[in-house]
């Protein structure tokens, strides 16, 4: 996905707002790929567990500068709150050179989310 988006954004100096249900926690390899533009294939278990070798053929880097829009909240919020999982799987990333976060909605208290 990033290899498809990158040429358009960089060549035209476009703003980018990337939103999605990535089904990946902040500790997964997806997060550093988006945040830092690359991922070390040797430090993430999901890549090391790729027994088919598909990920060894893929260049896991890009040149876009992206910021996690929810980073100021750190881990005080959830995008998924269920009986078996409470955490972040959905993200919003933006190009800080073109877009500025002016306000974030405060997260709901865990007590409210856990009410039946």
Task: Walk me through this protein's architecture.
The mean pLDDT is 88. This protein has helices spanning 2-12, 30-36, 45-48, 110-113, and strands at 17-21, 67-68, 80-81, 86-87, 90-94. The strands form 2 sheets. A 3-stranded antiparallel sheet has the order 1-5-2, with no helix packed on it. Strands 3-4 form a two-stranded antiparallel ribbon. Helices cover 22% and strands 14% of the residues. By secondary structure, the protein is α+β, with helices and mostly antiparallel strands. The protein has 4 helices and 5 strands.
Secondary-structure map:
Elements: H1 2-12, E1 17-21, H2 30-36, H3 45-48, E2 67-68, E3 80-81, E4 86-87, E5 90-94, H4 110-113
Antiparallel strand pairs: 1-5, 2-5, 3-4
Question: Top keywords for this entry?
Answer:
14% strand; 22% helix; alpha+beta; 5 strands; 3-stranded antiparallel β-sheet; two-stranded antiparallel ribbon; single chain; 116 residues
